[in-house]
Specification:
- The chain has 239 residues and is α+β, with helices and mostly antiparallel strands.
- It contains 6 helices and 12 strands.
- The protein has a 4-stranded mixed sheet with strand order 3-4-12-11. Strands 1-2 form a two-stranded parallel sheet.
- It is globular, with a radius of gyration of 19 Å.
- The protein starts with a strand and ends with a strand.
């Protein structure tokens, strides 16, 4: 069973005969200790404070039965690690027509694959990447009313807390809508099509940060902590 804040995404799951429901990741309406496994991919890095990020990990732990496992993926500050660039950076000079790119929110692995994930980051396990659609043409332009920097897509991070521009794939401006021109690169295809761009908050994790947060909870044990294609990843066991 899956959950998300977006009703539209949950409806898509329902249309594919998957079980999913709308909820807040900080308060999941499932009884404590009822899950054998939990997977949190590209969720925790959207919480804007350390307290809320830790609360989400605690909520995952609450759902697990003793001995249950959780797999957590978050976007890494280090998009170049051990002299190797992440797929996100490697694709910087790729096809301009390509809109489905890895934003570092990578895999949707089965929890049973965790040993494969942890033992070989360059293996076939790392090929099942979860791609997010965003506008690769957007530059780091300021957003009105925000003090956070805006990330230039496919480049290294210079701040842990930032906004990432997302191009609404296939979206067009409806008649009468007002779209702020700062959202579009001058002369870009998107500006010509009047497709809206949205800015989404991220906290990119530095090395050891996710593991330290997990270890601060006395109800779980960190079984593994590793780097995978621009992500920091942790496997937890409920005590």
């Amino acid at each position: 069973v899956g959950c998300d804040r977006s009703k539209n995404l949950v409806d898509i799951c329902g249309g594919k005969n998957f079980q999913a429901f709308v909820c807040d990741a900080l308060s999941v309406p499932i009884r404590s200790g009822s899950c054998d496994a939990c997977i949190s991919i590209a969720v925790i890095h959207h919480f804007s404070t350390a307290e809320r990020r830790l609360a989400n990990i605690r909520e995952l732990a609450r759902l697990l039965r003793p001995g249950g496992m959780a797999l957590i993926y978050v976007w890494a500050m280090e998009q170049e690690y051990k002299s190797q660039k992440s797929k996100y950076l490697k694709e910087k000079n790729g096809s301009k027509d390509k809109e489905e790119i890895n934003t570092g929110m990578a895999q949707r692995p089965r929890l049973s694959d965790q040993m494969c994930l942890s033992s070989s980051q360059d293996s076939a396990c790392s090929d099942r990447l979860f791609n997010d659609s965003k506008d690769e043409g957007c530059d780091a332009k300021p957003v009105a009313g925000s003090r956070l920097p805006v990330h230039t897509n496919r480049t290294s991070f210079h701040s842990q807390d930032l906004l990432v521009p997302w191009h609404l794939k296939g979206g067009t401006k409806k008649k009468g809508e007002s779209v702020h021109p700062v959202l579009f690169p001058a002369g870009s295809k998107e500006s010509q099509e009047l497709s809206p761009v949205f800015h989404r908050y991220y906290h990119v994790f530095s090395e050891g940060e996710l593991e330290a947060a997990c270890r601060s909870l006395d109800c779980v044990r960190v079984q593994n902590s590793y780097y995978d294609q621009g992500n920091w990843c942790v496997v937890l066991e409920k005590l």
